[in-house]
Design goal:
The complex is a heterodimer of chains A (243) and B (245). With 243 residues, chain A is α/β, with parallel strands linked by helices. Chain A has 9 helices and 10 strands. In chain A, strand 4 (55-60) and strand 5 (63-64) form a beta hairpin. Chain B is built from 10 helices and no strands. The radius of gyration of chain B is 22 Å and the shape is globular. The chains are: A alpha/beta (243), B mainly alpha (245).
Chain lengths: 243, 245
């Protein structure tokens, strides 16, 4: 579904991604972790063309993301993305946040788009909040709305860029629960996250990045059981310390 | 002081007899308001375009936006007005220049002053639009694009609606400035409010009354504008957002 082939990216002379190879197959949940500055967010933003890259090949559902002729808006409409800081549109009600792209991008009628949005809102447990504005919701609620907004586009896969990093601790679970449910329904997911509990629960593979390189790409059991690289071992020993 | 106050002067007939002196002032007020509103509309349009250009990716379009702002912000308003009025018709193709010179003089003056004030104020509006867009979290643009919106759609539905809400207060100042700056049009002969007050002084020798009346009229206009913009601000307030109730 998503395939990175030797993808490299530079900011000026600084290399942020170094020949990254990664494949996310249909129905697979891949968790990407690593220390800050390792390039994980950049990697996931390359997947829908939000960040350009200079070398290598990247395809989503067989369509080349980096190619000049690619209709990026069309491709992005099929790839859901959830951001660290939610990025709901503050001047629109929750209902309109969910309907906007359905109407403007997919050409759905407004009534249909609103109905679909309400259905998804109900699914993330926020049907009662449809008339409110983003600023009136808690962080956890906003992030669940953001997931519903992405799902409203009927995406073929979902990208999560540190979806719980900006949340208060007590709100993390409500967001993870939605993500776990999504994973169990068979959604193809690429998640940058430090929530190793989430990874252990639903990930098929865990990818570890360091200094722009993919250091380790292993099935979940193997990654948590016997990480091969020293760097990953060190990282795990630090973040799993308190689990 | 030996000044002879005479507030009744406003109701006196002008020498040509077809109007009172108050009528002259109101005529001037009409031109001031018409010129300023037209210039403001142009400024909002151009300012939004060039302000947006400064924030789009790439090098050429932001450069174009920056060049516009620097040009119109760094040349004195009066020089710009003379350029529009005296120089521009000469630079156009001959036929066009001649056509402009055939127009009613009042219309020529109005056109030059409109373009001058509009383009000058646009440079200032552009800076505010740019600042407004720049004040939004970077992720907003990414979120719009990630949903499949095109860049223009992202500006139209995501970035600009929020930016304009944020910049209403500084835009109010700009809007007020247009009315005050419109007085420069008197230098090319447009008989707007400040010019009418001069004329009143020349005809009646009652400078205090004339200038006090004109001051009050400018004040009145600005109070109305401020009230209007406050209404816009409260109408566009975003629930749950900073600065709202």
């Amino acid at each position: 579904m998503i395939r990175f082939r030797d993808v490299s990216k530079w900011y000026g002379s600084f290399q942020v991604l170094d020949a990254c190879n990664l494949e996310v197959n249909k129905g697979e949940v891949v968790v990407v972790c690593g220390p800050s500055g390792s390039g994980k967010s950049t990697l996931i933003k390359c997947a829908n063309g939000l960040e350009p890259f200079q070398k290598g090949e990247l395809t989503v559902d067989g369509i080349s993301v980096g190619a000049r002729g690619t209709n990026l808006p069309k491709l992005r409409a099929r790839v859901g993305m959830v951001f660290q800081h939610f990025e709901l549109f503050p001047h629109m009600s929750i209902r309109d946040n969910l309907a906007l792209a359905q109407v403007k991008v997919l050409g759905r009628g407004r009534d249909e788009a609103v109905a679909k949005g309400l259905k998804l809102l109900d699914r993330v447990g926020l049907a009662a909040q449809a008339g409110k504005f983003p600023g009136q919701l808690s962080g956890g609620q906003q992030q669940r709305v953001a997931i519903a907004r992405a799902l409203a586009m009927d995406p073929i896969c979902m990208l999560f860029d540190e979806p719980t990093s900006a949340l208060d601790p007590e709100m993390i679970n409500e967001v993870l629960e939605v993500m776990v449910e999504l994973a169990r329904e068979g959604m193809t997911m690429m998640c940058v996250t430090h929530e190793m509990g989430f990874a252990q629960k639903v990930a098929h593979r865990v990818v570890f990045m360091d200094q722009g390189r993919i250091v380790e790409d292993a099935p979940k059991a193997e990654f948590f059981g016997t990480p091969r690289s020293e760097r990953a071992q060190l990282f795990l020993s630090k973040i799993l310390h308190h689990v | 002081m030996n000044y002879h106050w005479n507030w009744g002067v406003f109701l006196a007939r002008t020498p040509s007899g077809e109007s009172t002196y108050l009528g002259w002032l109101l005529q001037g007020l009409w031109w001031t308001v018409a010129l300023s509103l037209a210039a403001w509309a142009l400024a909002l349009l151009l300012g939004t375009i060039f302000g947006v250009l400064r924030t789009v990716p790439g090098r050429w379009l932001p450069g174009l936006g920056a060049a516009y702002v620097e040009l119109f912000r760094n040349v004195p308003l009066l020089v710009q007005l003379f350029s529009w009025y005296f120089v521009m018709p000469e630079l156009l193709p001959r036929a066009w220049g001649d056509a402009i010179k055939q127009l009613d003089p009042m219309l020529q003056q109005f056109l030059a002053a409109w373009l001058c004030l509009g383009t000058f104020t646009a440079a200032r509006v552009a800076e505010q639009v740019r600042a407004g867009i720049g004040s939004l979290p970077r992720g907003q643009r990414a979120a719009g694009l990630a949903l499949g919106l095109t860049l223009p759609q992202t500006y139209r539905h995501v970035l600009l609606p929020m930016s304009f809400r944020i910049i209403v207060p500084p835009l109010t100042s700009e809007f007020l400035n247009v009315f005050k700056n419109s007085a420069v049009a008197s230098t090319i002969g447009l008989i707007e409010l400040s010019r009418q007050s001069q004329q009143l002084v020349d005809y009646t020798a009652q400078p205090y009354e004339a200038f006090i009346a004109v001051t009050l009229l400018y004040l009145l206009v600005n109070v109305v504008v401020m009230g209007g913009m406050r209404w816009v601000e409260s109408r566009s307030r975003v629930p749950g957002f900073i600065g709202s109730k």
